[in-house]
Amino acid sequence: MNMTLAEIEKRFENIPRKRLVFTPTPFHKLENMSKDYGVDIYMKREDLSGPSTFGGNKTRKLEFILGQALENKVDYLITYGAYQSNACMQMTTFCNSCDIKPILFLGDTKNQGVPTNLTGNLLLSNILGAEINYVSKPEPTDSVDLNPLWLKVIDEANKKKEELESQGYKVEFVPVGCTHEYGWVAYTLLFKELLEQSSANGFEMDYIFHTNGSGGSLPAMIAAKLMTGSKVKIISINVRSWKEGNLITKKTCLDRVKYVFDRLDIPCPSDEEIYAEMNIDENYMHPGYGIPNPDAQKSIKEVARREGMFVDPTYSGRGFHGLMDYIKKGIVPAGSKVVFIHTGGSGSFFSDPKLVKDLY
To answer: How far apart are CA 162 and CA 169, in angstroms?
Structure first.
């Protein structure tokens, strides 16, 4: 399959979309670190995607989620996450721009209780005026379920949805990380931008590295790679496990890739071809999501001091550390052309002091 970029763009003409993202997002070379390591490292700046100062990888998806919500005349959007959820904050910015009321259900993953000192994304969500519901961890039970807190969060969110619908409001639920099916097509356009921007800079990409969590970005990039016949290798540095039995797995990603092809009305390749494009690396998750990793902190500090750029300790910094480790180990050969997708998350620098204590 070798579709042109213009042919892919045309497939989006009839898909509802609220254009709020500043595209194309910037694309530039990390000159100092490229010289340091003998690999040409480029940064795709999704952190500068807007519409607020705090952009990120959720914004492209939200254009389509909000576009469909506006077409459906939705009154409320409900989503959930942890107290410092970047996705919840970004959804709120889009809701405010579209005059749709945002409701957040935030799970207390660290047994903090209702916070009295608002920081980071939680502070931003409050400034933005979201309705915020704090959900405490349930009492221990004999249940074998691995996610009792999130089951409780989703249950309370669904009760709120039913309550509002009983009052005549139109309500939609947006899953964690803004991984709503309406938004899964969005990163097809990001991949298209990468091909255009690398070509304008006179090179073909050898690798794309990105941080991977709830799987809202990777499926469309895989789809776009297969549509265009690009030879670039996509490497996903996971911050959450995709092993069988978890909420998101490779099968989940497969289904989402198929959805993207179906949504764009393009014949889908075989399962084997799709699976072959999933390069999922779970070696950089230690010691857990949102818990500082000393090696990753070193990479975060290095890019700040060599390039004057910030990649956050919870998400994008982990992926960038994975890229640097691949380069240092020679897995990415000298002379390669590598693009890192900076997916935002800078609000976490101002959330928990424990996240940044090793950075200065």
So the answer is: 10
Cα separation, 228 vs 70, in Å, equals 31
Please give the C-alpha separations between residue 288 and each of 131, 154, 210, 291, 313, in angstroms, as whole numbers: 29, 22, 18, 5, 12
Does residue 71 contact residue 19 with C-beta atoms inside 8 Å? no
Q: Which domains does the chain have, with CATH numbers?
A: 5-55+181-356 (3.40.50.1100), 58-178 (3.40.50.1100)
Q: Is the pLDDT of residue 283 over 90?
A: yes
Using left for φ > 0, alpha for ψ between -120 and 50, and beta otherwise, residue 63 falls in alpha
Q: If residue 36 lies in a helix (H) or strand (E), which one and from where to where?
A: helix 31-37
> How many alpha carbons fall within 13 Å on the CB side of residue 39?
24
Cα–Cα distance, 201 to 7 (Å, whole number): 22
| Cβ-based neighbours of 44, under 8 Å, separated by 6 or more | 25, 26, 27, 190, 193, 194, 197, 339, 340, 341, 342
User: Pairing between strand 337-342 and 207-212?
Assistant: parallel
What are the φ/ψ torsions at residue 137 (nearest 5 degrees)? -65, 140
The structure's pTM equals 0.92
**24: Cβ–Cβ under 8 A, 6 or more apart, which residues?**
193, 196, 197
Least confident of 203-212, 297-306, 348-357: 348-357
Q: Return d(Cα 17, Cα 183) in angstroms, integer.
A: 10
Can you say whether residue 73 is alpha, beta or left, with left for phi > 0 and alpha for psi between -120 and 50 degrees? left
